[in-house]
Amino acid sequence: MPGTAPLSPLLDVRDLSVSAAGRELVSGVGFTVRAGERVAVVGESGSGKTLTVSALLGLLPPGVHAAGSVTVDGVEVVGTPESRLRPLRGRVTALVPQDPGTSLSPLSRVGRQVAEPLRAQGHSRRAARARAVELLGQVRLPDPPALARRHPAQLSGGQRQRVAIAMALAGGPRLLVADEPTSALDVTVQAGVLDVLRRVTDERGTALLLITHDLAVATSVCDRVLVLRSGRLLADGPPAAVLSARDPYLSELVTAARETSLVAA
Ligand SMILES: Nc1ncnc2c1ncn2[C@@H]1O[C@H](COP(=O)(O)OP(=O)(O)O)[C@@H](O)[C@H]1O
Ligand SMILES: [Mg+2]
């Protein structure tokens, strides 16, 4: 589209605050994510990661309010009614949840669930099924046609998370948001899922906002790391700068990260 500011960021967060019952839980957070960029949001448990990304997606729980500004592909999210945000979901932004149990139905075959958003976009049943099998292959699941016929309970945790990623990709989003997508998985399985996130975003030029309490996970996938502490942004920079910072909170995150096998010492 000529003239539509291709240089403006895909996600632009300015002075974002999130409050509940008069208490400010996230304060004055600002950052941008450009098309194709992979950015991690890191912080200890309770630092405000989930509330921040929920605010970006317009998915805050009842009684929790955002102030400030968040634009996604130029559309203001803060204060915008649900009905106007719905068209963005799946197509501009898509969420990979922590627990694929929350996005996968136990009752329906995996292929059908991945095909569902494609059907909703107007693809024929046959085209949607074929595309779903293709997506299952792109997240490196073995024997996609056979896997598509299984139910979620017949898959491992790592396989279910790959299916959730395939579902999130189905609408062709420009920004994938993943909130602790590997926290429930053991380290070797985790590495495989992170590799899939890295590859699928690379291949498509999809931006990634990866939320994790684990700095090792963040630096293994992302080009930039944002650090949250007590609802405030403490750092925003390339992994090397964050890893070498002399802040005690960051040192603690680095020490915790070195205990896992993913980060270079
Ligand atoms: N729905 C809610 N109502 C009130 N407080 C909340 C709610 N959700 C989270 N909080 C509080 O906000 C802070 C940040 O939570 P959260 O964003 O979930 O942290 P993180 O994802 O980094 O672990 C925590 O102190 C948490 O207790
Ligand atoms: Mg969280």
Strand order of the largest sheet: 6-7-8-3-9-10
How many domains make up the 3D coordinates? Answer: 2
Whole-number average pLDDT? 91
CATH superfamily of the largest domain: P-loop containing nucleotide triphosphate hydrolases
Globally, the shape reads globular
What Rg is obtained from the alpha carbons, in whole angstroms? 18 Å
What is the helix content?
Answer: 25-40%
Instruction: Report the strand count.
Output: 10
Q: Sketch the topology as an H/E string, one letter per element.
A: EEEHEEHEHHHHEHEHEEHH
Overview of this protein structure:
It is a single chain. With 265 residues, the protein is α/β, with parallel strands linked by helices. The chain has two domains: 1-92 and 174-265, P-loop containing nucleotide triphosphate hydrolases (Rossmann fold); 99-172, no CATH class. The protein is built from ten helices and ten strands. The chain has helices at residues 49-57, 82-85, 110-120, 125-138, 144-147, 157-169, 187-204, 215-221, 239-244, 248-258; strands at 11-20, 23-33, 38-42, 64-72, 75-76, 93-96, 175-179, 207-212, 224-229, 232-237. Strands 6-7-8-3-9-10 form a six-stranded mixed sheet, sandwiched between helices. Helix 7 (187-204) links the parallel strand 7 and strand 8 (207-212). Helix 3 packs parallel to helix 6. It is globular, with a radius of gyration of 18 Å. The protein starts with 10 loop residues before the first strand and ends in a 7-residue tail after the last helix. 42% of the residues are buried. The mean pLDDT is 91. The protein binds adenosine-5'-diphosphate (ADP) and magnesium ion (MG). Residues 20, 25, 43, 45-51, 61, 64 line the site of adenosine-5'-diphosphate.
